[in-house]
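User: Here's a chain of 688 residues. Predict its fold as tokens.
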Amino acid sequence: MLCLLCEVMAMGAQKPRTVVFYVAPNGNDAWSGRLASPNRTKTDGPFATLPRALDAVRELKRQHGGTLRQPVTIYLRGGTYFLREPVTLTPEHSGTPQCPVTITAYRNEKPILSGGRRITGWKLATLNGKRVWTAEISEVREGKWFFRQLWVNGKRAIRARHPNTGYLQVAEILDATKQWHEGQRRFRFREGDLKAWETVTDAEIIVMNRWVESRLPVLQVKEVERVVECGKRSLFRLDPGDLYYLEHCLEVLDAPGEWFLDKRTGTLYYLPRPGEEMRRAVVIAPVLTQLVRMVGEPKGGLWVEHIVWRGITFAHTEWYFPADFTLGWPAPDVGGFPQAAVGVPGAVYGEGVRRCTFENCTIAHVGTYGIELARGCHENRIIGCTITDLGAGGIKIGETVIRDDKGEQTFGNEVTDCAITDGGKMFHSAVGIWIGQSYNNRIAHCEIADFYYTGISIGWTWGYGRSLAGGNIVEFNHVHHIGKRSDGDGPILSDMGGIYTLGIQQGTVIRNNLWHDIAGWRYGGWGIYFDEGSTGIVAENNIVYNTTHGGFHQHYGRENIVRNNIFAYGRDWQIQVSRPEPHLRFRFIGNIVIGRSEQWLAGGIDFNFEFDRNLYYREGGGPIRFGNLSWEEWQAKGMDKHSLIADPQFVAPEKGDFRLQPTSPAFQLGFKPFDLSKVGPRKKAMRR
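Assistant: Prediction complete.
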């Protein structure tokens, strides 16, 4: 009897059998979806589309009173699925903890969900004495479609650009403004930089100022006066010397890989790169802004949950300012966003999403951010994903607004072992990972590289007002080539950091990260950057090197702790503080700072901070200064009473090896070595 009872209990403990559906490019939505390939008679086989498979999940739930009783796996066979509209998941498609819904690549195949469309029918033509390829697109001619991104054989093509490389500079500002955040519609250019080309009104001026770009449609170029007039105003007041370039003018189509789309005739012009045979090339232009929309109603407790995406590639999207686009600040008629290109959506979008997973997925060749977890998203995981070739940034978590309802708040999400690279291709101020008004998230073991602006941004409250951005953990990440890309392009923007924070963030910890090669244009290429109101943050066990304006900067904030870090080789100075304030601003304790500059600490020095037990060393010798104070004067003010100036004895700092030799004087000061050999994505996690 006891044995029989054990057998019954064992049977009850067995996991329910998984229901499997298949989707394939050669499938049929009228079939059962239960076969991996069409049968011999072509009467049954896989579905043709993912939405049909999701309908099958919904039907399965309805058969059991709205709840899954078995796990469901949807296998996507290899190939490209060109979507006519975003794949939409609602609470009706949700799984449960015991019975999740998994959407996964079949074996080692590569399924691609594409928001684009193939361009075919290429013909040779002659343009300005050059042989070019052209394709006629009737929807463009009819005003039904227009695009600003193009990919040829999986490589981003270049919207006809002047100059082909590098940047022009604003010569003179013609319209005075009272405030720095009041932009202009025109400026004077340098002799010969621009011409009144026939198609110049199809072009945009992309001008960089402070920490943003402005995309300004050209209305007129006056060659004699050297004035360009635009249909929108720049975000902020322009300054002489600001960088800009012109994009999308037929007359500047002169370099391999460039293209131009004539909206009047519907003709697409392309100059091929070496080796590209256009009659066989795979050319894709974007149609959709978003590929996947997972949308619940968190305020009502209706969640999209327990969905797993594994091994899927998401590609080919675009967003551009709608015709009725307006912005509340700094002005309604500007051509951009005041920071981080924050209004550009994600190609994969979530709202009211909880306990879902993206694992070993790829988001590539998009004109948007990659993934966005917006209102009411919590306890989701993004693991081992590759996010690259981005018109904007990598991942957005949270919102710009503060939600009072706990159900609508975004929190507790995890991004681990991801490679987020090659961003800001269209919206240059976009960032690798943006977290807005969201708490208790973890960013770990990621690589973030080749962005024109910031690597990781957390906050969205300027100053000491209410903020939800606390308790975020940033650890074991490798963030590099921010501002100036590894291909040598940039810097073009200012006021950036490897990590950038805003507002009160009690419990936020930045630890065991590697930050390097961070460069600002006019100012502000910092490693760790505590901006306006940053409060309650701990930065420890980080290595920061090769920055233009210092390893650490605090604009203003209070009660932050910066301890046991290594800051090396700031170009202009090593540390910066800005606004003086009548409270404890931060504690800078037990750090090692090495550089070659005489100026060590720059900014607003009021002594409302604590410096002690630090080790400083200027390579090549010579004095170091803290503001206008010598080392002795600095110590006389009560700073660095127990600190030293001595060679820290790194193993090979010129090669980025900051391990300490056993005789380092840093140990006398209580410095605790830390191992950053495992920063960035872990290979095992990337293979899971």
